[in-house]
Amino acid sequence: MRVTFLGTGAAMPSGRRAQTGLLLDADGDSLLVDCGSGVLNALARTDAGYEGVSTVLLSHHHLDHVADLLPLMKARWLAGAEHLEVVGPQGTKALLDGLLDVHEYMDGRIDLRVREIGAESFSVAGFDIDAKETRHSMDCLAYRFTHGEGPTFTFSADSEAFEGLANFADGSAVLAHDCSFPDEVDVSSHPTPSQLGETLADSGTDVGRLYLTHLYPHTEGRHEEMLESIGERYDGDVRFARDGLTVEIE
Fold it and tell me: Which is it for the CA torsion 117, 122, 75, 106, positive or negative?
């Protein structure tokens, strides 16, 4: 399985990072996870392209995770694609209905299939997925991905750091976790480095590699101190994700 970070930013643009989006590829199967602003352009630079990705899995419905969803639909229609499947938490159908009410000329252009899921196990686009509720300001799901007998990739989506989510990721070859702000920012619904490091250490979570993502502009120029803060409690392999980074899940 390969994971490409299409967007590692958040709701406040930095000029360096698109909003949240990841592309998963394995044995000819492709899955787009979240579709924030800038993700469509990043997707167009991949081998799959927007023509080759017919399924989108949403973690939640905040704008920085869904802003390019209707542009993706239009791009696929113009490229001659016939369908798009959108999978996500409760309210995903209402989200798409609302977008099409505003841009009604897009209604019926392609075969739009919407599937709502909860904190459960399911399969989509060739990937087997487990979902867990996170601690965020709206309903949000974290996901564990496997493909065949291969290793596991876990995406925290947007969430505070907490033991249940850490345990959910335990054993993953790679974990991509929200780390939106440096330590001095007083924030809820997202973790700071010290909170994340403490939670991973206290839970005994064992992952092959941790990538920090969903990065606000506040984190620019602060990467070393953020890594040091996590490392005071957690001694795993921790790195910053960046737009365009492709990771082989082995």
Answer: negative
